[in-house]
Amino acid sequence: MLVYADVVLMNLQYAPALLQKGETPAAAPREMLRIFETITSEHDVGLFRRFEIMRYRHVKRGIPIRT
Question: Is 44 helix (H, G, I), strand (E, B) or coil?
């Protein structure tokens, strides 16, 4: 019997500790974001872009990041 499941990966949480100066992700988080992109595109899996959503809310909407 085959069982199918829907899978969605969620990428990194946006946080100041993951950034270089400005809003650019540092090398390690940038590589992790790239890995998520590769895995989801190669395996036709959904990707919830938490990092990008949180960055948008913080940078464009001015919602503070609580630490």
Answer: coil
